[in-house]
Design a protein that fits this description.
The structure is a single chain. Strands 2, 3, 4, 5, 6, 7, 9, 10, 11, 12, 13 and 14 form a twelve-stranded antiparallel beta sheet that branches. A two-stranded antiparallel sheet has the order 1-8. With 223 residues, the chain is mainly beta. Helix content is 8%, strand content 56%. It is globular, with a radius of gyration of 20 Å. Strand 2 (34-45) and strand 3 form a beta hairpin. It has one helix spanning 3-19; strands at 22-23, 34-45, 48-63, 69-82, 85-87, 95-99, 105-108, 129-130, 134-140, 148-159, 162-172, 180-189, 195-208, 211-222.
């Protein structure tokens, strides 16, 4: 066999191995781990454009034997404007939620700003995925089943230790006429499921101070 032929076969082998890789959506929580993000939201409403910026941190407070973890979410430097006019808005109190090993919230304390999309960038279903595969996802609030979400997640790529996933969800909330519809792309550290970035669009959002929101573009970038 010539050296050139050997190199070709080796390259083909690498491609085959890479194509057979899969992504397991299991979070590797560790107490004390903390991640910080820059969050931006640009929304359209009847009163004009709405802009929201903030710094958001997520800190693992406790890890349980079953793989669950208590994670504190803290929003700071929150700035809000409507029609170009800044509005007074205090930073919300930190909230703590218990997440299972797949990133699904199990219990929650407190409430954050209604247009926080962090919760949609942590749960990628409970099935192992290969590139190109799609899996159905669903979350149901056990205390109030009227609050639930369902959708799909697709593994777009798995490269250089990073997994890129396409997320499409409809989030149903009690009292809302329509579910919030969200489409986004999340990039995570493949081995730990740690979120690196999340961006997309959403419509049928909850109102802010009585102002109806039609659509919004959002982004989260790891600092």
């Amino acid at each position: 066999m010539t050296i050139r032929a050997a190199l070709v076969l080796a390259a083909v082998g690498v491609v085959v191995v890479a194509s057979g890789q899969s992504f397991k959506p299991v979070h590797a929580y560790a107490a004390g781990d903390s991640d910080a993000y820059v969050v931006k939201v640009d929304a359209s409403a009847s009163t004009g454009e709405i802009g929201i910026t903030s710094d958001t941190s997520r800190t693992v407070k406790q890890v349980y034997g079953d793989g669950d973890a208590d994670i504190e979410t803290k929003i700071t430097n929150l700035k809000l404007s409507i029609g170009g006019q800044p509005l007074s808005w205090k930073d919300p109190q930190p909230s703590t939620s218990r997440y299972n090993r797949f990133g699904m919230p199990v219990t929650a304390e407190g409430q954050s700003l209604g247009m926080s999309f962090t919760r949609f960038g942590t749960f990628f279903g409970d099935k192992e995925l290969k590139v190109g595969e799609t899996s159905a996802i669903e979350q149901i609030d056990e205390k109030n089943p009227n609050n639930h979400l369902k959708g799909t997640v697709k593994l777009l790529s798995l490269d250089d230790g990073r997994a890129k996933l396409e997320i499409v969800v409809d989030s149903f909330t009690e009292g809302a006429d329509k579910p919030m519809h969200l489409e986004g792309v999340a990039t995570v550290h493949a081995a730990t499921c740690r979120l690196l970035s999340f961006e997309g669009t959403a419509k049928n959002l909850p109102s802010i101070k009585g102002v109806a929101i039609t659509t919004a573009k959002f982004s989260m970038e790891h600092k």
